[in-house]
Amino acid sequence: MIDRRTFLVGTGAVLFAAPLAGEAQQAGKVYRIGIMQFIPVSNAPQLLDAFRQELRELGWVEGKNIEFENVSAEGKLDRFPAVAAELVRRRVDLIIAGTTVAARAAKNATSTVPILIVVAADAVGSGLIDSLARPGGNITGLTLMTVEIQAKQLEILKEAMPQTARVSVLRNGPTIRSVKELESAARLLRIQLQLLTAGSPKEIDDAFPTMIRGRSDAFLVVADPLYWVHRKRLAELAAKARLPGMFPVQEYVEAGGLMAYGPSYLYAWRRTAVYVDKILKGAKPADLPVEQPTKFDLVINLKTAKALGLTIPPSLLGRADQVIQ
User: Fold this and answer.
1) Minimal CA–CA distance to 53: which of 274, 250, 201?
2) Please, which residues have CB within 8 angstroms of residue 142's CB and are 6 or more apart in sequence?
3) Are 35 and 80 in contact (CB under 8 A)?
4) Which helix or strand (DSSP H or E) is residue 298 part of?
5) Claim to verify: residue 135 and residue 218 sit in the same structural domain
6) For residue 70, which of 78, 51, 24 has the smallest C-alpha distance?
7) Would the CA dihedral through 96, 98, 102, 104 be positive or negative?
8) What is the mean pLDDT of residues 9-32?
9) pLDDT on residue 303
10) How many CB atoms lie within 10 A of CB 130?
11) Looking at the structure, do residues 218 and 270 belong to the same domain, yes or no?
């Protein structure tokens, strides 16, 4: 089972006030869970495996009382509306939308089918929910407040490399609020930002020569499903360009990136299973507080640091939650 201290619940015990097992659950029914995927086959199977394992521990067995409908956007964000519509046509009992874009598409497709967000950034600010404590409507789940931690990511980059004066920010489309947060932090750290947009594999490739021409000392990657899929490629491009990188979560570092500071996607998917359990047993999404992370992991890849000729300060290594040798 999972450590439930990792996420903060908006109003304490409200989440656990759902009906007891069997009160609303229909005996003998096989519930259908729709999962909106960015690509056909996940390149991070450990996430869905953790989700399924947690469901089994809660009494939900695939093929017995639950089944999954996986529909892919084929790696194209603009296909999520079609994915959401397809799941609604299939009459699923619940939709899991991993990202902000997927959740917005699901919200536009249905106002009645419960929707669970997993790693949506700033669910309130993006208009997905009314508030964390009382989300309202048919959406609840977990929101990863990535906007608030990007300033901290920049600070860690500066601590790791005090000489850093210019940082490229790689993002998929405009993110006005995050840019303001970063610009404010950058001024305090005396860092200039170079904002780059990459919305395709080719644009990701092209971004690195631009970073070099702009004389960036390092780069920061804004969380995005496209970058998640191509995290190994990002690490390879960074190594070739000899640029230190800060990434959103640890899986990028496991793929060869230098460092990451952010919440755990693995925990988020496990926690999502708890929400599935509550909703299938009768809880209403509008009454289930949306959780946000309270713990962030710092992960450092020393092998990558050595290849880049960097010496990570012992003080930073001492604070790291995981160090990859």
Assistant:
1) 274
2) 7, 117, 118, 119, 120, 268, 271, 272, 275, 290, 291, 292, 293
3) no
4) strand 297-301
5) no
6) 51
7) positive
8) 56
9) 97
10) 15
11) no
Question: Is 2 a domain residue?
Answer: no
Predicted confidence (pLDDT) per residue in 234-281, tens digit: 999 999 999 999 999 999 999 999 999 998 888 889 999 999 999 999
3-class DSSP state for residue 218?
Answer: strand
CA–CA dist 97, 227 (Å, integer):
17
For residue 1, being part of any structural domain is answered with no
Per-residue confidence band for 22, with pLDDT thresholds at 50, 70 and 90: very low
Give mean pLDDT, residues 218-225. Answer: 92
Q: For 292, how many CA atoms within 13 A lie in the half-sphere containing its CB? A: 16
Please tell me the number of Cα atoms within 13 Å of 257 on its side-chain side: 27
> Phi and psi dihedrals of 286, rounded to 5?
-60, -25
Instruction: Judge whether residue 13 has pLDDT over 70.
Output: no
CATH value at residue 253: 3.40.50.2300
Q: What is the mean pLDDT of residues 36-51?
A: 78
Domain count, the chain: 2
Q: Tokens representing 147?
A: 């906007």
Range of the domain at 141: 7-145+263-293
Cα 323 versus chain centre, distance: 21
